Structures are given as structure tokens and as C-alpha cells.
Amino acid sequence: MTTHDHAPDKSLESIEYRMREAGRWLKLEDGVIETLIAPRRVLEVSIPIRRDDGTRVRFTGWRVQHNITRGPAKGGIRYHPSVNRDETVSLAVAMSLKTALMNLPLGGAKGGVAVDPKLLSEHELERVTRRYVSEIFAFLGPDKDVPAPDVGTNAQVMAWVMDQYSIGIGHAVPGVVTGKPLALGGSLGRDSATGRGVVEAASLVCQANGTSLEGKRIVIQGFGNVGMWAARLAAGWGAKIVGVSDVGGVIASEKGLDVQALVRATQSGATSVVDAGIGEVVARGVQNSTKVFSLPSDIAMPCALGGAIDKDEATALAAKYIIEGANGPLTPAADELLNDRGVIVVPDIYANAGGVTCSYLEQCQNYAHLQWDEDEVNASVVNTMRAVFKRLHTFSQENGLTYRAAASVLGVKALADAHQLRGLHP
Ligand code: NAD
Description:
Structural class: alpha/beta
Number of domains: 2
Low-confidence stretches: 1-8
Bound molecules: nicotinamide-adenine-dinucleotide
Order of helices and strands: HHEEEHEHEHHEHEEHEEHEHEHHHH
Oligomer: single chain
């Protein structure tokens, strides 16, 4: 039995399937795994705002707390037109597995508003954020549920979240969000943390296979927070970024793109990588952005949205390794096809966990009213990625499991153990 009364979307169906498979592997009772799958709380809210021209418009938002057994719920807020209830639940489940796998004392959550932030003015975006926060206010708090940025939100949006929550409480509560600006208690290193973890994961999987990241040809989909930092840091390791795509299309260079110049161009006004004047534009349009995966390469880093690689893209994909920077970028069919072909997939719940690891460090700094220096934060993120990879790699080898299956089993086991120890009330 599932937790919804209509057909689940693909991402939810697939993560529920993976949890059940992990439960079966662990020989958990059906009642236990179904309890772990069900989200603890799902809140759907209406967000009416006044536009700058005086007219009213209404959006729908969600906040899902999937698991809060091991600590406060933790997960990003996404602003994107395709945000919906089931996708938000599936992303919250992934957060629970991620924090459990990474052994962070946190649960899993996700939130979002079905809105295209690019169609709103800055003032309208602020009004959406404040109204959303006031609607989910009772859910939030440093010990209850701590949001962070995700697709379509950034440090400024987190600053508004912090302010709106703090107004309700009556004093500043920086610890209610992570990924906020430094001036409000944000952490050094948070910006780069997810991309840093993605590149560390790539380096570790290369090492485990007797090779290194240096000289590897990498293709990246998405040049936002995760993709941009992954490109910068991988280039710093001596890898060649041979293709990058975003909503505008695909650029490529066999010799390796000039990543620094690409970053400068996108930071100073180019709305897409195809308008940056770097490399060769090999395709235009969002519908062509997955063509980046068919370029000759060693490593593919999908760092945009879920479901980007389906059967067709998997068939055309050239790389030997896939590092999932995005959440859920492979459909189950693509995953199976790539597995059969011997492509090594490093799953999202590990590969992009540098972000939540750093968010946890930000929470620690907020609790202690301290700010750690950037090298200390970066080193802590990298050390956590290394320690967990060691466990994941050993577990997958010893049990003949893919990294994805091993990560799911380790995550589900940590959740199940915590449930077992706390017991069931009443
Ligand atoms: P972002 O909004 O900063 O960037 C998204 C990028 O993807 C942009 O370059 C955009 O052009 C591109 N994009 C969006 N839709 C696309 C499409 N249909 N085809 C091709 N490109 C498209 O987002 P982000 O923070 O970099 O997040 C990217 C992914 O990583 C998401 O799946 C997110 O859930 C995941 N993630 C982010 C973090 C984090 O710390 N930001 C942490 C863990 C996981």
C-alpha cells in the first residue's frame, strides 16, 4: 500500500521501489518499511500575492517532512513551475536517506512552490517567499525543520525565510535556514559544497577503479550552483570539461572549455552557456540540453533536474562513470540500461550530499554562535565524503550491490535502526 490515492509520479514510484528493495534486502517487516516510506507530514498551502501592477495571483506550495526520527527535518525549497506534491515527497524521502547515509543527525524534508521565479520581479519573489513561510511557519524551527536553497532559490530567498520566521518568533533565529548570506550567519564554503562533494565523489570512484580524475573528459548538464562549482573544481583537479549544457543548449570543446571564462561570462550577464561566447555551440534549446551526454567523455555529471536521462539519453551516453549532482537525474529504465552496460553510477544520495553536509556545519556554527574559516569547512565536507565513500564502496563490494543499491540499504538501515530504538508510541 502506498501513501497516495492516485498514480504516483515516476520519481516517487522509483524511490518507494528502491526503499522496498532495500527493506527486502534487510529482511525488514513490511509494516516497518511501509512506515519508513510514508511521509510523516505533508502540508499543502495556498500562496496568494499581489503583483507589482496591483493584480492578484495565486500559487500552490508544499512542505513535506518525510522523516524526523534522527533529528530535525532538513531539505531545500524549490521554485519551479513543475513542482508538485508527489515530486516534493520523493525529494523529501531522498533527503531522509541522504542524511541517514551521511550519518548526519537530521531527518529529511523538502518544500517548493509551483512558480517560475524568472517571471516574477524581485519584490514579487519576496512576497511569494514571505507568504509561503508564514503559511508553513508552525512547521519550521531550528529543532523542527530547517530549509535550504534548491533549484530556483538562493541565499537572498533564505534571508527572507529567516527574516519572516524571525518576525514571527520575535527575535533573530539564524538557525532556521541554511544557505543564507554570510552576514546573517551563513557558512563559508556553503556555495561550493555540493559541487565540491560531486567532484570528490568523482575522484574517489576513479581511485577505486585504479585511475584518477586528472585528464578525464567531463560533460555537465546544468551550470547553476552545483554544475558551475563542479566544473570549476574538476578543472582545478586537471580534468577537461568537454561539454556543458543548460536551459539554452549545449557548448563543447574537445580540448576542454575555458571554465573560468565561462563562469565570468555567466556571472556578468550571459543568461545561458550558449550566449557566453565560449567553445562551440553544438545545440540550442532546452529540449536539446541532454545532447551533452552523447559527447565523447569519461564522466557525466547531470546537475540540473530529475528525470533528465531516460532510455534514449542512456543509450546515447558515452561516459563510463555518472556522478549524480542533481536529485534523481536517471529514470529507473535508464539506470537499468546503464547498469547492464557496466556504467558506474554514483547515486545522488551520496554524490550531492556535500551540500547537506555543509548545511549541517552551518547549523552547528549557528548553535555555537561561531563562524569557522573556509578551509576548515571545506576540509570537513571532503573528509565526510571520503569516510562515507569508504563505507559505501566496501559495503557494495562485500555484498555485490551497485552503489545505488548499497546507498539505499545503508540509508534505510540507519532509519530502521533509529525507529527500532525509539519504539512506537503509544
Ligand atoms: P540552480 O537553479 O542553481 O541551477 C540549475 C541549472 O540547471 C541551471 O543552469 C539551469 O539552466 C539548468 N536547467 C534547469 N532545467 C534544465 C533543463 N530542463 N535542461 C537543462 N538544464 C536545465 O540549481 P542547483 O542548486 O544547481 O541544483 C541543481 C540540481 O542539484 C537539482 O536537482 C537540485 O535538487 C540538486 N541539488 C542541489 C544542491 C544545492 O546545494 N544547491 C544540493 C543537492 C542537490
